[in-house]
Amino acid sequence: MNNNIITKLSYGVYIVTTWSEGRPVGCVANSIMQVTAEPATFAVSINRDNFTNACIKDIKKFAISVLAESSDPKLIGTFGFKSSRVVDKFDGVDYSVQSRLPVLNDSCGYIVCDVIDTMETDTHTVFLGKLVAADSFGSKTPMTYDYYHKVIKGGAPKTAPTYVAEEQTEKTQGGKKYRCTICGYVYEGDEVPDDYMCPICGVGKDLFEEI
Amino acid sequence: MNNNIITKLSYGVYIVTTWSEGRPVGCVANSIMQVTAEPATFAVSINRDNFTNACIKDIKKFAISVLAESSDPKLIGTFGFKSSRVVDKFDGVDYSVQSRLPVLNDSCGYIVCDVIDTMETDTHTVFLGKLVAADSFGSKTPMTYDYYHKVIKGGAPKTAPTYVAEEQTEKTQGGKKYRCTICGYVYEGDEVPDDYMCPICGVGKDLFEEI
Which residues of A touch B160 (CB under 8 A)? Predict the structure, then answer.
């Protein structure tokens, strides 16, 4: 058996948002698909470890922001590799409230859904949402998961359905530290090598900053 | 509200197969996504009007063949625009039986799943399948739904979750366009040749109409 074929499935890159006690929250998702055309419904798979999962169950509404190739990759670092439990992911993020849901403006557009059903699995909840509002922000090219991996060279959060355990390398030498601005990984050493790739999210030296 | 954003969601192109009384059956699907990583599970949305839907419920197993950019577009015509009720879709198709399920050899590879849950919606069933076998057929580039629309210039079956009534195709300056009334393929040229056959579904000139 060769499971490599499961990496050949095609996805987009999305940020799924809702509210937690009046505070906007959200996380990155790639497992999103339309389920029916009339009415337009969408299935979204969100890990129960994600803070956003319980918030969607509480609010019973969510929004999908469709990321564009031109969207700032740091949105993926913030919404994919941090938790709304400990940080305000929307701090410094350009967002608006559409049909009472927070959506990211640096995207192709959004879909707002009412939750009409759920299916629980071992680790994830599949939310079935019925479209109640949608709009496009210009005619941007949507970011595919393949583009994210190959062009942006990003990785998957551990809570993603498509996560594959990655090798981690321990660095203990030197006194300086550099943090990956995408996923928060800390590199310890005098200088990030030119050909270095973040072991968590795969980005290069230029996206590391000294801390 | 501008629903155009829902066409910006990204998908692959797949053929979902199973058996009907010992006969291989299947249909095209694009709404397929991984739901959990451990165990690997997949959600597949299939219209209840599709013959394959009832067959999956009966057999409780299905296979996903991941189409490649190099896959013969006629597979989409056969499996997407005809019904296993009236034709043998596998007639003349190169397929093999893998882990007791029929899969198409002209693809990137396959995933065989046991059905472990279902969610019914207005028109479609979402099957949750647990991976029991998988393999790749070489290192082909998977066909995305976007590639199918833009490069192969194909349309969506009316039973597809992503079907949009009267799909709009903008006319280029000066040139004429003809649309296949069966599958939506657009022919560009002054006139459809008398011996022309639709590259997707195989019908002749008389089933094309000027747009």
Answer: 37
Distance from CA of A181 to the nearest CA of B (A): 26
The C-alpha angle with vertex B65 and arms to B131 and B53, in degrees rounded to 5, equals 80
Contact A47, A124 (CB under 8 A): yes
> Looking at chain B, which residue has its C-alpha nearest residue A45?
B35
* 8 Å CB contact between A103 and A87: no
Q: Say yes or no for a CB contact (<8 Å) between B134 and A108.
A: no
Q: How far is CA B159 from the centre of its chain?
A: 10
pLDDT surpassing 80 at residue A164: no
State which H helix or E strand residue B52 sits in: helix B51-59
Selected for mutation to probe chain A from B3, B31, B36, B150 (highest A CB count within 10 Å) is B36
Which residue's structure tokens are 């009046």? A22
Say whether pTM exceeds 0.90.
no
Domains of chain A, earliest start first:
3-150 (2.30.110.10), 177-210 (2.20.28.10)
The ipTM, to two decimals, is 0.88
* Tens-place pLDDT, residues B42-92: 999 999 999 999 999 999 999 999 999 999 999 999 999 989 888 999 999
C-alpha distances (whole Å) from A169 to each of A59, A175, A201, A202, B3 are: 40, 17, 13, 13, 45
